[in-house]
User: Fold these one by one.
Assistant:
Number 1:
Amino acid sequence: MPVQNPYEQYQINKIMTASPAEITLMLYEGAIKFCNIAIMAIDQKDMEKAHTNIMKTQRIIEEFRNTLDRKYAVAEDFDRIYVYVLKRLFEANVNKDKEILEEVNTHMRSLRDTWKEVMKRCNKA
């Protein structure tokens, strides 16, 4: 079934033609976006929307954990970060605590920015 919405088609093409590094960056951006939506939903007292978007963020972090290449020592460092973030997301979801979500977003932005820097350096090599 063809996609009718040009923006949706653009998004599909963007993902289908992205490199693994670009997909990782998109996932970081997605985690940040869903976390922001959850924060806004808590402000609007829409707990179902908050829950849905916290769960989307959790699934992205779980995917990062599942795809770590454990033959590299740095993978354990990332795993510890991801485990911590997942714990905080669980706490945020149970308590609908936007301060915890803001903390999670700080970590996600830091990871995203680090990833962008890695991508820049790899492209120069």
Number 2:
Amino acid sequence: MDHLDRITIEPGKCGGRPCIRGMRIRVKDVLDLLAAKVTREEILEDFPYLEDEDIDAAIQYAAAQIDHPVLSVPPQAA
């Protein structure tokens, strides 16, 4: 399911970094919590204005950002 519509980028908010649904919680904040092994349940309890789909959106956004084209450079002759 596509949750990317939950990610917003506004020049005057959080330095133009991607946020969740126009709020001042950045995608990076959610990802940092997950990386620190904070459970979804704990995140949703600590941030009651977030929804489970917001966490999915943050993960989906990060996955899309890492999937970029890689230019192959031919090896140079020695």
Number 3:
Amino acid sequence: MSLPGPALPMRHAAEYRVRFDEATPQGLLRGSALLGYVQDAAWRHSEAMGFPRPWYREKGVAWLVRAVEARILGPIADGETVTVTTRLTGYRKVMARRETGIVGPDGEPRAVVLIDWAMTDGRAPVRIPSEFEHAPIDGPGPFAPIRVDLPPGPPGATRLRFSPRLRELDPMNHANNGVYLDWLEEAVAAAGAEGAAAIAVLPRTYRMEYLRPAEPGAALVSEAWRDDAGWAYRLADADDRDLLRGTLIAE
């Protein structure tokens, strides 16, 4: 396989039509489906730059989502076609950041998503291969990784217990990164009318830091509570180890 040359696409744009099964009972795009579009656009950009899936398999490496910041600006309805445009905005030793914009059929922005990706060999983070020196940066460059620091959940936090469903697992055999956003919204909505309102207000911003994967059959505890900034969320396993920490700030 030939290595990428210098003239590589700085951005990749793709259109996605919201399917019926991707929409909520309110007829709006689910958070997991939105992040699915973002993830797919990132893969398609990687392929366009000369890094298809077989290249990663040959190298024995893969990208994993380390953190997400998703700002939802407007509604995305069932049946609408949105344009998703992604670009690399910076690198660290073992990480890369992408910014992805989602625009509605009227040309108005509907969401902006930042994702910090970490390169791994399946066991631990590894340096990004030297071939990526050719990948174009369209942004500020170095970045501070997204972090979510939370205190322990208070006694009155809303708690849900469940295990990942088969349909929520991806080819890496753990819960896909987008599913965690659905779980966050389920926990916040379960807190009552105030929580249900928070996941519908526009604009709103989600931040999620992924710490460990949710494996098939894992016993999970999902908890959400109101704090001074908005809503806090924690997902833990049966040993009380954090799998994900997140926040929802309704603007």
Number 4:
Amino acid sequence: MSRRLSTVDPSKKWSGPTRKYDLVKEFVIAFLVIAVAALTLAGLFSSPDEKAITLQSWSKAAPADFVQTAAGELAGTTTSASYGPPYNNAADGQKILGISPAKVVGVHIPINPAQSFVIEPLKISADVPTRAAIDAWNSAPEKVRTGWATAYADALAKDGKATSLADTKNEYGPVPTLVTSLLAMAKSGGLDGALTTSDTNMPTNFTKPLLFLADGGTYFSDLASAQHLGGDQWGVMNETGSWPGQSWLWLYSFWYQIDPFKSSEDADVLVMTLMGVLSLLLVFLPLIPGLRKIPYLIPVHRLIWKKWYRRSSKS
């Protein structure tokens, strides 16, 4: 049974009331009002954006955290070492219905943390002791290298504040020299440049610096929490500080705050899949039986257009 929404014949010329409307004038006025408001607010409050966090600023602000992370990269115990695709095959990645989308795509940005974040950058401008340390590292068996780096990382973590430790028992191999040289390189700003240009001459690929920074202990996460950007702080929709953020992203962030997404290791892929399904339902709403009847069952549109319906019922 079809429902008639209007008694107006679309083939007939409109004979109802009209009103002059200058679209260009309205546009110019709206543009000027918004421009004045934007410039005024920008002058009063400036930009809410913080200065970019770099490996240089990290190494200067929290050198102990930096060297612990560097030792962890050599030991293969950081997050990026066990991330899985697209960086390595150490894990399958998040799954949905038993399928891992990341594994299907495979490794297409190969990264070996020890080589990519420590050894390769140090080769660019290494002094004699550092070059000797690199040679000693590369020539040692993998099991020996892991033992050196793990022992040094554990010793640094136990101390908590040291940026270098003496190898009195000869159990760290070349790791102290490598880590100390990397810290000096980071403080000079050279490590940022080395990692962003390792795969291209244009310094536009920040994948490696971001992965290295994300592998850090507490420095980066503490900064994020202080700015209310943590995942449990609805960080995906927040702006730095107390500024309002991207409010249209609240629906994505909402799912991360409730179970089963909140406690799931596959939260990202589950949330994105759910949002994809909801988006498709919205797009195809007019074609879905039952759902397309909702406007008739809940006639909110009649409240919005009540004047039109009142006049239409009288004609």
